[in-house]
From TrEMBL:
Domain named Thioesterase: residues: 54-126
Gene3D superfamilies: Hotdog Thioesterase
Top-level taxon of origin: Bacteria
Lineage of the species this protein comes from: Bacteria, Pseudomonadati, Pseudomonadota, Gammaproteobacteria, Pseudomonadales
Protein name: Medium/long-chain acyl-CoA thioesterase YigI
SUPFAM superfamilies with a match to the protein in the record: Thioesterase/thiol ester dehydrase-isomerase
Amino acid sequence: MAEIAPTLEQLRAVVAANPFNSWLQLSVERLSEQEIVLRVPGRAEFIGTQALNRVHGGVISSLIDAGCGYAVLAATGHGVSTINLHTDFHRAASLGELRVTGHLLHQGGRICSAEAFIHDAEGTLLASGRGTFYKARHPHPVLSSGTPDARQGELIEEELEIPHA
């Protein structure tokens, strides 16, 4: 159970504050105790195979990572860092809206695992994946203060004990 369960609005604020998510145009569509549903519109910049109009696998893997990571945050209230990520590609993704559904699989003291599934607008399964995540000691700063701030990234790095190069 989450120490501080995020509301849909708080989770949307966390997602929107991330510059990479902004570039993806990632949004939180739905949040429940069992799952999180994210949405991303199709963008020309996602194309990896132009002749076939197919989405680059790196975009797909990034969406799996986001679906898993935000499923952990939604369930625990803590920011996370990816330890391991595995993506299975089931079908080529054509350019268009994609929906990512994430579920927490296991919550340990500091290590969690989650799964995510990507479907196209017609509901066809395109990819699935699993990830292992390192959970910060304290709840995500947005859940404590209610708003993202400039130190948010630094605070999470301190919590995750990420060494600076």
